Amino acid sequence: MTPYLRSGLPKPVPDSDGLDAPFWEGLRSERLLLQRCNGCNGWQWGAEFVCHRCHSFDLRYEETKPDGIIYSHQRVWHPVHPALAEQGPYIIVLVELPHADNVRVVGNLIGDPMQSLVIGARLHGVFEHHPEDDPAHTLLQWAVTD
Fold first, then answer.
1. What dotted CATH number matches 65-146?
2. 132: Cβ–Cβ under 8 A, 6 or more apart, which residues?
3. Using CB atoms within 10 A as the burial measure, which of 39, 51, 52, 69 is most buried?
4. Selection from 75, 77, 72 nearest residue 121 by Cα
5. 23 Cβ neighbours under 8 A, 6+ residues apart
């Protein structure tokens, strides 16, 4: 697969506290791992030390399907980084995961950057591997489900 984004962007790495490392490790093996509370069983993302619902510190990472719906989107025309100078337009989506307590994650929508978008449209995750980068990493991109 041809990478959606051009090279030159900062490489994604786990936070210095390592809290989100399981998320990035999961992407490398084409698995979407998000936090889930052992106390109330609720899902959450971004990575936190405490559950947003019941305030338990007993959290785990659990796999969920990389399928969701468009909650919101933005078609970007102006580059936010010099490496994106020739990239625009591109589409950023806020993806809601109905099977994981409607947790929302942000990503790029692959495909025609001028495609029509509908709030609520179904999406599926596409794992974009970058083994040649240092450090090697995988991005979770999104595509409209046919």
1. 2.40.50
2. none
3. 51
4. 72
5. 14, 33, 34, 45, 47, 61
Tokens matching residue 67? 């399928």
Whole-number Å distance between alpha carbons of 104 and 56: 21
What stretches of 1-146 adopt beta strand conformation (E)?
32-37, 43-44, 59-64, 67-76, 90-97, 103-109, 122-130, 137-144
pTM for this predicted structure? 0.90
Residue spans of the domains in the chain: they are: 14-64, 65-146
| Residue 56 region by backbone torsions, left for phi larger than 0, else alpha for psi between -120 and 50, else beta | beta
Distance CA 15, CA 12 (A): 9
Nearest to 92, CA basis, from 70, 73, 69: 73
Mean pLDDT confidence for 84-98 = 89
The tens digit of pLDDT for each residue in 32-61 reads 999 999 999 999 999 999 999 999 999 999
Q: Which two tokens stand for residue 7?
A: 């090279």
In the three-class reduction of DSSP (H, G, I as helix; E, B as strand; rest coil), residue 140 is classed as: strand
Tokens for 81, please give them.
């980084």
Residues 6 or more apart in contact with residue 57 via CB below 8 angstroms = 49, 50, 51
Mean pLDDT of the chain: 92
